[in-house]
Amino acid sequence: AEMGRTLVELFYDVVSPYSWLGFEVLCRYQHIWNIDLRLRPAFLGGIMQATELFLKGNKPPAMLPKRGEYMLKDIKRMAKYYQVPVKISEGDFQRIIGTSTLGAMRFITAMDMTQPEYLEPLSREFWIRFWSQNEDISQSENMLAVARQAGLSSELTQKLLEMISSPAVKNRLRETTEEAIKYGAFGMPAVVAHFHGEPHLFFGSDRLELLGSVIGEKWLGPVPS
Predict the structure, then answer these.
(1) Pfam families per the record (predicted)?
(2) Residue 129, number of CB atoms within 10 A of its CB
(3) Among residues 23, 26, 54, 160, which one has the fewest Cβ atoms lying within 10 Å of its Cβ?
(4) What is the mean pLDDT of residues 150-155?
């Protein structure tokens, strides 16, 4: 991070609606707070697997019927409050459990390795397609559509699609996921602020007010003007 700026890392997976909320809020605050925001595409499935053994069943929250019911309402309320167009209905939990975002997160990782300045719009388009338009993002033709929406050239998109199956991209995604776990992440979004030489982990999109307080920045609500 630049002198005097706090490095804030956001570990996320586009399968997670709360990650989208946290992503949008941090993207808004990156120009207001004295922070360097670093987007870290990771794989939620890998975190769930790794932490499952310790937490005796770190199941996705929607697996508990009551919690699932609550989450439906919660995400709708949060979407409105955060002004992020997440749309969710009861069938979505099955849809999420049945979708692997491994390909999408590798695609985003390839972007991070090639032209990281596109990381923000590309990630956003994946969320929009999956969480706003309820469309599949696991097939390569859908990834092409997402990349087009994000304004990528067809040459670049083709290059990223080829990179998906490369060991370099697979390793990078695995390493990023392991890094999140090393910081103590057990779900997403996982936000790590490097402050006074210490990493501070915050879990969830509703802890950003607390993050501000820890790094000495003023919270101006989810949509700062």
Answers:
(1) DSBA (PF01323)
(2) 20
(3) 54
(4) 96
The model carries a pTM of: 0.93
pLDDT (mean) for 164-191: 97
Q: Which region, left, alpha or beta, applies to residue 221 given φ > 0 means left and ψ of -120 to 50 means alpha?
A: left
Output the six-digit token pair for 28.
Answer: 């808004």
HEC-encoded secondary structure of the chain: CCCCCEEEEEEECCCCHHHHHHHHHHHHHCCCCCEEEEEEECCHHHHHHHHHHHHCCCCCHHHCHHHHHHHHHHHHHHHHHHCCCCCCCCCHHHHHHCCCCHHHHHHHHHHHHHCHHHHHHHHHHHHHHHHHCCCCCCCHHHHHHHHHHCCCCHHHHHHHHHHCCCHHHHHHHHHHHHHHHHCCCCCCCEEEEEECCEEEEEECHHHHHHHHHHHCCCCCCCCCC
Active site residues: 16
Confidence grade of residue 22 (pLDDT, cut at 50, 70, 90): very high
